[in-house]
Input
Amino acid sequence: MLRIHNLTTEFPTRRGAVRAVEEMSLSLQRGQIMGLVGESGCGKSVTLLSILRLVARPGRIISGSIHFEGRDILSMAPAEVRRIRGADIAMVFQDPLTTLNPVFRVGEQIRESLRVHRIGTGRTSRREERETVLSLMKEVGIPSPESRYWQYPHEFSGGMQQRALIAIALACRPKLLLADEPTTALDVTIQAQILELLSRINSERGTAILFVTHDLAVASEFCHWISVMYAGRIVEQGPVDEVIADPLHPYTEGLLRSIPRLVKPRRRLSPIPGDVPDLIGLTNRCSFESRCDRRMPECAERPVSLVDVGGGRHVRCILYE
Output
């Protein structure tokens, strides 16, 4: 369904170009849930924005291809991309409070997707759209949808706002859902409810999901496949159970060592040493070299490619070349 090949997105600065995403390659099948995991600033959100061609200026996509159902999104005319957004590919943004318009009622904001993508074809009326919105609000777990339809975003709790964003994304029954940390800033109970909702949507509708998170524990429970990002690059990919049980890249190992254990045998947390590197000038060496406990002199001398190690697993490390 979705195939990204060698995608590079950069932001020019006075010091040089910052490549927020570099040589990104991944593929997503129909009905699959893929987790895009990494610490803050590694390029996860920019990847989602690049798929929808929503990278804000002066940022730009400088190379690569993004094929959705065989069509290259990067070569489409702007009008054609707008027809895909919201209809075939929808996105759940990270912060619902800043994404929802505070001066419009929630129900009308959900209805807007139907109006934009369906009224022009003459297939739906305002009454049918409102009935669809009420059904959607009920489906995503918003209680009393008839009264909630007319409320404003500030009258919703954080979890309810997130459900409203999911309803907006599902309004036109998209084939692919891009979820940018939809459980951030939610308590554990609401987080579990949102994940259960997305899982039900995936199983009942067959909607493929590209799920961005910094939490490996969440990804291990929710996703089928996982791609680990660091400094704009994919450093490891594979089936989620295999990656969690037997991580190959030192960065993935470091992330797993940083997760607290509540069951025996307990161990001391082992944080990844050092800081995230400057993204300017990383092209000619391994981006994790300065923080890796298994680094070799060769790691700082040349770029490292993503290696296929079999079984659907890939890793960007000199140890596997």
User: Anything to note?
Assistant: The first strand starts at residue 2 and ends at 13. Residues 159 and 186 are 7 Å apart (CA to CA). DSSP finds eleven helices and twelve strands in the chain. The mean pLDDT is 89.
